[in-house]
Design brief:
Blueprint: H1 14-22, H2 26-35, H3 39-48, H4 51-62, E1 65-66, H5 67-74, H6 78-90, E2 94-99, E3 102-107, H7 109-118
Antiparallel strand pairs: 1-3, 2-3
């Protein structure tokens, strides 16, 4: 293999070669990418791909809410709202806490980071 050529037969720009070398080479990068468990990211992306769930996530960034508040805000039935809440909880984006007879929903740290990043768009 010629100097500067990669294992995949491409002569990368010098900037890319240097960056790859700093990270242990192309094979190391491939190994790291392929072994990374993407399940949590995949679940979060699926959860926020739905506009109602994204809206709930955004609403909870403004205020902790009980399901009755979310039902009123979203204009949907309790069962539909509960379904969306459960998907967001499964994805690790929101959490629930009990205050008296109420279950109060709020964002997890992951949910907060996602909303913070989306607000930059």
């Amino acid at each position: 293999m010629a100097q500067g050529e990669s294992m995949i037969g491409i002569d990368f720009p010098e900037e890319i070669k240097k960056e790859m070398e700093k990270k242990g080479g192309w094979e190391r990068i491939k190994k790291d990418v392929l072994k990374k468990d993407m399940k949590r990211a995949e679940e979060a992306i699926k959860a926020i791909a739905n506009k109602r769930r994204l809206r709930i996530l955004y609403a909870l960034s403004k205020q902790k809410m009980c399901v009755c508040m979310l039902v009123d805000l979203m204009g949907c039935s309790y069962s539909k709202c509960s379904y969306h809440i459960s998907k967001l909880k499964e994805a690790g984006l929101i959490k629930a806490s009990k205050i008296g007879n109420f279950i109060i929903y709020s964002l997890t740290s992951l949910g907060k980071r996602i909303i913070k990043d989306f607000e930059k768009i």
